[in-house]
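Pipeline run #58 for the internal structure catalog. This entry was flagged by the ingest filter as a single-chain record with no existing model, so it goes straight to prediction. Upstream metadata was stripped on purpose; only the residue string is passed forward. Reviewer on rotation: M.T. Logging verbosity set to normal.
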Amino acid sequence: MGLEAVQKLKDSGISDDLVVFHQLDVVDLNSIASLAEFVKTKFGKLDILVNNAGISGVALKADAFKRAFEQAGDFPTGKQVWAEIGTQSYEMAEQCVKTNYYGARGMVEALAPLLQLSDSPRIVNVSSMHGLLKNINNEWAKGLLNDIENLDEDRVDEVVNEFLKDFKEDLLESKGWPPLLEYCQLCGCHCQRRWLPCESQRGLLVQHLQPLDIVKEGGYNGGLLVAANNHCLMSKFGSHHC
């Protein structure tokens, strides 16, 4: 898929020397380390890190999802709706956590030293407004994540682990958690910008962007916009400057 994307960029007229491919698996720390070493050797620094890897944690029924999207006129919401258009399992929950939260965190930790060498370092997390704290009704989790003065990665881990525990015990609804796995994990990624060690990341800009509802294969062709007809495809809803 990566090589195919590179070829499409080259076919569009982008010069060969401006596009470089390197394999990456964000749930594999060795793969992340290999990428960091490659960037260090070839470029010496990193100006922008884009965290775009993510999974929904839901096995969607394509036709049912498209119908629900069309009926809602937007991304479908509601526990009952999602019970009809997708299934979730504990194994999916674990993989969602590893990819959406720990994967993004591992990328930041491994590439932070190279970002520090840039005159204008930036981290862009492609995410979703569904991960905002307002979508979580669990008061314990919300209180912990809103306590910015004491928030660190251990506390975010505590919230993520509690979510997994309650998922396994079928307590999501009674504990006030959102029904979709990705909501909680995205919330953890959003909080990343709050506990980044600013004393060692001075000048680092962290942004969270949501792609607008684009018709795309990964979304079973559900969406409101066609990418080719739109120039502004991202909506910024969070940033933090150390």
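catalog note: The mean pLDDT is 78.
catalog note: Strands lie at 48-51, 59-60, 86-87, 122-126, 205-211, 234-241.
status: ready for reviewer M.T.
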